[in-house]
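From the shared-data thread, chain only:
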Amino acid sequence: MKIGIKVGDVMTRQLVSVKPSEEIIDCAKEMASKDVGLVIVEKNGKLLGVLTERDVIWALTKKGDLRNVKAGDIMLRKITTIKPSRDIYEALVRMRKQNTKWLPITVNKRVIGLLTLNDILRIEPSLFDIAVSHMNIKDADDKLRRKEDALSGIKNWVDEGECERCGSFDLLSDSDGEMLCGKCGSGALEE
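Structure, as C-alpha coordinates:
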Protein backbone atom coordinates (compact mmCIF):
# COMPACT_ATOMS: atom_id res chain seq x y z
CA MET A 1 0.00 0.00 0.00
CA LYS A 2 1.24 3.49 -0.79
CA ILE A 3 -0.02 6.76 0.61
CA GLY A 4 1.87 8.91 -1.90
CA ILE A 5 3.72 10.98 0.69
CA LYS A 6 7.49 10.59 0.86
CA VAL A 7 9.36 10.26 4.14
CA GLY A 8 11.62 13.16 3.14
CA ASP A 9 8.62 15.47 2.89
CA VAL A 10 7.54 14.77 6.46
CA MET A 11 10.77 14.16 8.38
CA THR A 12 12.22 16.47 10.99
CA ARG A 13 15.37 18.04 9.62
CA GLN A 14 16.57 19.80 12.78
CA LEU A 15 18.23 16.88 14.53
CA VAL A 16 19.76 16.86 17.95
CA SER A 17 22.92 14.81 17.79
CA VAL A 18 25.77 13.93 20.11
CA LYS A 19 29.12 12.22 19.78
CA PRO A 20 29.61 8.74 21.28
CA SER A 21 32.21 10.17 23.69
CA GLU A 22 29.74 12.64 25.21
CA GLU A 23 28.79 12.02 28.84
CA ILE A 24 25.24 10.87 29.51
CA ILE A 25 24.58 13.76 31.88
CA ASP A 26 25.38 16.23 29.09
CA CYS A 27 23.18 14.23 26.69
CA ALA A 28 20.30 14.36 29.17
CA LYS A 29 20.74 18.11 29.58
CA GLU A 30 20.71 18.51 25.79
CA MET A 31 17.52 16.42 25.55
CA ALA A 32 15.86 18.54 28.22
CA SER A 33 16.93 21.88 26.74
CA LYS A 34 15.78 20.89 23.23
CA ASP A 35 12.65 19.13 24.56
CA VAL A 36 13.36 15.87 22.70
CA GLY A 37 13.18 12.25 23.80
CA LEU A 38 15.85 10.98 21.43
CA VAL A 39 19.24 12.11 20.21
CA ILE A 40 21.20 10.78 17.28
CA VAL A 41 24.66 9.44 18.14
CA GLU A 42 26.95 10.11 15.20
CA LYS A 43 30.57 10.54 14.32
CA ASN A 44 31.66 12.46 11.22
CA GLY A 45 28.02 12.57 10.12
CA LYS A 46 27.61 8.78 10.16
CA LEU A 47 24.91 7.17 12.28
CA LEU A 48 26.31 5.04 15.10
CA GLY A 49 23.16 4.71 17.17
CA VAL A 50 20.48 6.57 19.07
CA LEU A 51 20.07 7.48 22.70
CA THR A 52 16.56 7.73 24.14
CA GLU A 53 15.15 8.97 27.43
CA ARG A 54 14.51 5.34 28.31
CA ASP A 55 18.22 4.54 27.82
CA VAL A 56 19.21 7.38 30.16
CA ILE A 57 16.73 6.22 32.81
CA TRP A 58 17.95 2.63 32.45
CA ALA A 59 21.56 3.78 32.95
CA LEU A 60 20.56 5.78 36.01
CA THR A 61 18.82 2.79 37.61
CA LYS A 62 21.58 0.30 36.74
CA LYS A 63 24.72 2.38 37.17
CA GLY A 64 23.65 5.10 39.62
CA ASP A 65 26.58 7.43 39.02
CA LEU A 66 26.45 8.62 35.43
CA ARG A 67 29.56 10.83 35.47
CA ASN A 68 31.71 8.33 33.57
CA VAL A 69 29.02 6.83 31.33
CA LYS A 70 29.27 7.90 27.69
CA ALA A 71 26.57 7.96 25.02
CA GLY A 72 28.42 5.25 23.11
CA ASP A 73 28.27 2.96 26.17
CA ILE A 74 24.47 2.70 26.29
CA MET A 75 23.19 3.83 22.87
CA LEU A 76 21.01 1.57 20.76
CA ARG A 77 23.26 0.24 18.03
CA LYS A 78 20.95 -1.88 15.88
CA ILE A 79 18.87 0.81 14.26
CA THR A 80 16.38 0.41 11.47
CA THR A 81 16.58 3.34 9.08
CA ILE A 82 14.72 4.42 5.98
CA LYS A 83 15.54 6.47 2.88
CA PRO A 84 13.82 9.82 2.28
CA SER A 85 12.34 8.57 -1.02
CA ARG A 86 10.23 5.86 0.66
CA ASP A 87 6.50 6.15 1.30
CA ILE A 88 5.34 6.97 4.86
CA TYR A 89 3.26 3.78 4.87
CA GLU A 90 6.47 1.76 4.49
CA ALA A 91 7.96 3.76 7.36
CA LEU A 92 4.96 2.91 9.54
CA VAL A 93 5.34 -0.78 8.68
CA ARG A 94 9.02 -0.65 9.68
CA MET A 95 8.13 1.07 12.94
CA ARG A 96 5.57 -1.63 13.70
CA LYS A 97 8.06 -4.44 12.99
CA GLN A 98 10.68 -2.84 15.24
CA ASN A 99 8.13 -1.78 17.88
CA THR A 100 9.43 1.77 17.80
CA LYS A 101 7.92 5.20 17.22
CA TRP A 102 10.80 6.70 15.24
CA LEU A 103 13.13 6.06 12.32
CA PRO A 104 16.34 7.87 11.40
CA ILE A 105 16.41 8.94 7.75
CA THR A 106 19.71 8.14 6.07
CA VAL A 107 21.46 8.57 2.75
CA ASN A 108 24.75 6.65 2.43
CA LYS A 109 24.76 6.03 6.22
CA ARG A 110 24.57 9.79 6.88
CA VAL A 111 21.64 10.92 9.01
CA ILE A 112 19.63 13.64 7.30
CA GLY A 113 16.44 13.53 9.35
CA LEU A 114 14.20 11.76 11.82
CA LEU A 115 10.66 10.52 11.29
CA THR A 116 8.36 9.89 14.25
CA LEU A 117 4.98 8.28 14.54
CA ASN A 118 3.59 11.72 15.43
CA ASP A 119 5.00 13.15 12.19
CA ILE A 120 3.15 10.48 10.19
CA LEU A 121 -0.13 10.85 12.06
CA ARG A 122 -0.12 14.64 11.75
CA ILE A 123 0.12 14.31 7.97
CA GLU A 124 -2.04 11.20 7.52
CA PRO A 125 -4.42 10.68 10.47
CA SER A 126 -6.13 7.80 8.63
CA LEU A 127 -3.12 5.63 9.58
CA PHE A 128 -3.97 5.96 13.28
CA ASP A 129 -5.75 2.59 13.51
CA ILE A 130 -2.83 0.80 11.86
CA ALA A 131 -0.35 2.47 14.19
CA VAL A 132 -2.33 1.76 17.33
CA SER A 133 -3.15 -1.83 16.45
CA HIS A 134 0.45 -3.03 16.76
CA MET A 135 2.13 -0.53 19.06
CA ASN A 136 2.17 -0.15 22.78
CA ILE A 137 0.56 3.28 23.00
CA LYS A 138 -0.61 4.43 26.41
CA ASP A 139 -4.39 4.45 26.75
CA ALA A 140 -4.76 2.99 23.23
CA ASP A 141 -8.08 1.31 24.07
CA ASP A 142 -9.48 4.58 25.45
CA LYS A 143 -8.31 6.50 22.39
CA LEU A 144 -9.89 4.00 20.02
CA ARG A 145 -13.13 4.08 22.04
CA ARG A 146 -13.21 7.87 21.81
CA LYS A 147 -12.68 7.69 18.07
CA GLU A 148 -15.46 5.11 17.66
CA ASP A 149 -17.76 7.22 19.85
CA ALA A 150 -16.95 10.26 17.76
CA LEU A 151 -17.64 8.46 14.52
CA SER A 152 -20.95 7.15 15.87
CA GLY A 153 -22.08 10.69 16.61
CA ILE A 154 -21.99 10.84 20.40
CA LYS A 155 -20.13 14.13 20.15
CA ASN A 156 -19.59 16.34 17.11
CA TRP A 157 -15.94 15.41 16.64
CA VAL A 158 -14.66 16.33 13.21
CA ASP A 159 -11.35 14.53 12.71
CA GLU A 160 -8.02 13.66 14.25
CA GLY A 161 -5.39 16.34 14.19
CA GLU A 162 -3.45 18.88 16.18
CA CYS A 163 -5.39 20.96 18.71
CA GLU A 164 -5.04 24.64 17.84
CA ARG A 165 -4.82 25.57 21.53
CA CYS A 166 -2.58 22.98 23.25
CA GLY A 167 -0.98 21.30 20.23
CA SER A 168 -1.87 17.74 21.28
CA PHE A 169 -2.80 15.19 18.63
CA ASP A 170 -6.35 14.02 19.33
CA LEU A 171 -9.89 13.97 18.05
CA LEU A 172 -10.96 17.54 17.34
CA SER A 173 -14.22 19.41 17.31
CA ASP A 174 -15.04 22.82 15.91
CA SER A 175 -15.46 25.27 18.76
CA ASP A 176 -16.26 28.76 17.51
CA GLY A 177 -14.09 28.28 14.42
CA GLU A 178 -11.20 26.77 16.37
CA MET A 179 -10.31 23.06 16.09
CA LEU A 180 -9.92 21.88 19.69
CA CYS A 181 -9.38 18.60 21.54
CA GLY A 182 -11.78 17.46 24.26
CA LYS A 183 -9.68 18.99 27.05
CA CYS A 184 -9.52 22.44 25.43
CA GLY A 185 -12.99 22.39 23.89
CA SER A 186 -16.35 22.59 25.53
CA GLY A 187 -15.86 19.46 27.61
CA ALA A 188 -15.04 15.80 27.72
CA LEU A 189 -16.76 13.07 25.76
CA GLU A 190 -20.15 12.06 27.02
CA GLU A 191 -20.07 8.61 28.62
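The first strand starts at residue 17 and ends at 18.
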